[in-house]
Write a structure and sequence with these properties.
The structure holds two protein chains of two kinds. Chain A is of the alpha/beta class. Chain A has helices at about 55-65, 85-95, 115-125, 130-145, 160-170, 190-205, 220-225, 240-245, 250-260, 300-305; strands at about 10-20, 25-40, 45-50, 70-75, 80, 95-100, 180, 210-215, 225-230, 235-240, 310-315, 315-320. Chain B is mostly helical. Chain B is built from 13 helices and no strands. The chains are: A alpha/beta, B mainly alpha. The interface of A and B includes residues 156 and 167 of A.
């Protein structure tokens, strides 16, 4: 992995949202939705970002595409820092990176037919000469498993799964390199979910696409990703290969997340990682390690000192004091006794 | 205004669920029309407005006399008769013909003022709502300043500053209606701005002008239409009011408010001189209000 050039390189990205209040609308607080994350995305891979609601995974996807202006950081796409591009240059660059949203109902203008919306997308970036656009619309629809006769229909005439296919067609219409799938299958039925995921995988193989896959469903993530980023309160807890993360998670939070997946085998038992309390507010995140308030293995040091990313192998990097000196065997590690149960 | 909602208009709604202002189902033009037709008050208002428009377009077809040139000093304050349907005024002019021609004057003022106010207000509101931050703060605080004045007082101040004429009345009413449009459009834009399709278009690299004109504006139109209709009623009232006070239309223009002002000294002897222009104002305002309310109910599913 490391010898390849990354397609996207995110450095110390921060996205803070001011909370204004009072008569003068002064900034009273800051929600640190994304608080200094660094990662690379390699061409042709699927990198998933997982975490609980509110951990900043969707915000990360949007900030990387500069759909919101990030507070600070650097995002290099094919060598250019997107956050420094002037607006017009950014508009042209958007051709290379697209996004598919979670809600297939609100992601289309209700007044546009399928052919109108695909044509519009192509004309914005001027990807296909005018005479060929009609053909290309049909081609795109067939690529995502829809039929040519659908071109003049309106979005509301389609089911959720079909709309998600249209959203994929719209993203593909400008021939992007990177697609951010922001919870793209979360609102679909399980059977439809599988179809859409298989479609995404097929398109990746055929077109050499790179995906950033934002999701909370670990089953889906395991199926589709090459690598996984686990986020907690706007920070990265663990990054690693899908296999490594699922086999041997080294961050206590990752372990807690994974132990929440039901195992369809009554004989197999793993030691569950109990979590207490709720996710703290991102307005006043805990000092030190953001996870120490809920971590069953927390030490005194965790409240004071923010852990660095420790590279455990080529395929795994973990932000936790426990793994400072290499991987830990969690099965035998004693848990901190907590008052709550 | 009491609304009569027949069963059919309610039944129309069960099929489609409108979640949100920006994602109403397409093809709602027909449904809207059906709902409007089911509302009797709105139909009456609409019919009267159509009549007003026809009269305003060709007043000479309806008038029996010339509104200003026909004067008969020997026949002043004549009560309604077959020759002078609404009687004659203090100069012996035909009140009916003057009311008819007054329709044109009044509607022309009302439509122009609301049109200009709407264009400016909608532009400001959409820009404020879409860009947010300091742009929003600046525009909306300016609107707040305008809103802080009582409407008629603001119009009065503007006309006194600019001079008494109907064109200045148009400017005054336009300025006075800008903040209302701006506020309404800003609110709807805020709701539409964060819908995913707007973000999707932005992600495709569209220019802001294109996003605003083609994707935001069409989806915030309904409240604008309702507000414009209701505001025409207000504009008619204010224009008549200003003319009544001598700040709008100048004699001998057949303007309803001005006719009221001219006739008010003789109200005990010749009530018809003020009664008919007064009725004309009332009916015009009422009809636009009825239609506006009907439109609002037909466009807003939450008011059911």
């Amino acid at each position: 992995m490391s010898d390849r050039q990354p397609l996207l390189r995110v450095k110390e990205l921060r996205q803070h949202f001011p909370v204004r209040g009072g008569v003068l609308g002064r900034i009273q607080n800051v929600v640190k939705a994304v608080d200094g994350i660094t990662f690379d995305v390699y061409p042709g891979e699927t990198l998933s970002i997982v975490g609980e609601s509110g951990c900043g995974k969707s915000t990360t996807g949007r900030s990387v595409l500069r759909l919101q202006e990030p507070t600070s950081g650097e995002v290099y796409f094919d060598g250019d820092n997107l956050l420094e591009l002037p607006r017009s240059a950014l508009r042209h660059r958007r051709r290379d990176m697209q996004i598919i949203f979670q809600d297939p109902y609100s992601s289309f203008n209700p007044r546009q037919t399928i052919s109108q919306l695909l044509n519009e997308a192509m004309s914005i970036q001027n990807v296909v000469p005018k005479q060929r656009r009609r053909e290309r619309v049909v081609e795109l629809l067939e690529m995502v498993g829809l039929k040519a006769e659908h071109v003049d229909r309106y979005p509301h005439e389609f089911s959720g799964g079909q709309r998600q296919r249209i959203a994929i067609a719209r993203a593909l219409s400008v021939e992007p390199k990177l697609i951010v799938c922001d919870e793209a299958v979360s609102s679909l039925d399980v059977s439809v979910q599988a179809q859409v995921i298989n479609l995404l995988k097929k398109l990746q193989r055929e077109l050499g696409l790179t995906y950033i896959f934002v999701a909370h469903d670990l089953g889906v993530v395991r199926h589709i990703s090459d690598r996984i980023i686990v986020m907690y309160l706007g920070q990265i807890a663990e990054i690693g290969d899908t296999r490594t993360i699922f086999r041997n998670p080294q961050h206590p939070y990752t372990r807690a997340l994974l132990s929440s997946i039901p195992i369809p085998d009554p004989k197999q038992r793993s030691r569950p990682v109990p979590l207490v309390g709720d996710v703290p507010s991102p307005i006043n995140p805990p000092a030190g390690c953001p996870f120490h308030t809920r971590c069953p293995f927390a030490m005194e040091r965790c409240a004071a000192e923010k852990p660095a990313q420790h590279l455990l192998s080529d395929a795994q990097s973990v932000a936790c004091h426990l793994v400072e000196n290499g991987p830990v065997d969690y099965e035998t590690l004693p848990m901190t006794v907590r008052g709550e149960g | 205004m009491s609304q009569s909602l027949s069963g059919s208009s309610l039944a129309d709604d069960t099929g489609s669920v409108v979640v949100n202002p920006g994602i109403a189902p397409v093809g709602r033009g027909r449904t809207l029309f059906r709902k409007l037709l089911a509302n009797r008050a709105a139909v009456v208002g609409g019919a009267y407005i159509i009549l007003l428009l026809v009269v305003a377009a060709a007043p000479s077809l309806f008038a029996t006399h010339h509104p200003t040139r026909y004067q008969n000093p020997t026949n002043r304050f004549a009560p309604p008769s077959s020759e002078h349907w609404f009687g004659t005024d203090n100069l012996g002019r035909d009140v009916y013909s003057r009311v008819i021609y007054g329709t044109q004057v009044t509607l022309w003022v009302a439509f122009r003022s609301v049109f200009f106010g709407m264009i400016i207000g909608v532009t400001l509101g959409i820009v404020a709502g879409y860009y947010g931050k300091w742009v929003d703060a600046l525009i909306m605080r300016m609107m707040d300043i305008l809103l802080a004045f009582p409407g008629i007082l603001l119009a009065l101040a503007i006309v006194s500053a600019l001079g008494a004429s109907l064109d200045n009345v148009v400017i005054a009413i336009a300025i006075f209606s800008v903040p209302t449009f701006a506020r309404i459009v800003r609110g709807s834009t805020l709701a539409v701005r964060n819908l995913e399709y707007v973000e999707a278009i932005r992600a495709l690299g569209a220019r802001d002008v294109k996003i605003l004109a083609q994707h935001v504006l069409p989806n915030v139109l309904s409240p604008i239409i309702v507000q414009a209709t209701l505001y025409i009623a207000t504009a008619i009232l204010i224009a008549s009011g200003l003319s009544f006070l001598g700040l709008g239309a100048q004699p001998p223009i057949p303007e309803w408010g001005l006719m009221l002002a001219a006739g008010r000294d003789f109200i005990w002897n010749a009530i018809h001189v003020t009664l008919f222009p007064g009725l004309a104002i009332m009916l015009a305002v009422l009809s636009f209000n009825l239609l506006g309310d009907g439109l609002r109910d037909a466009l807003d599913p939450r008011l059911k």
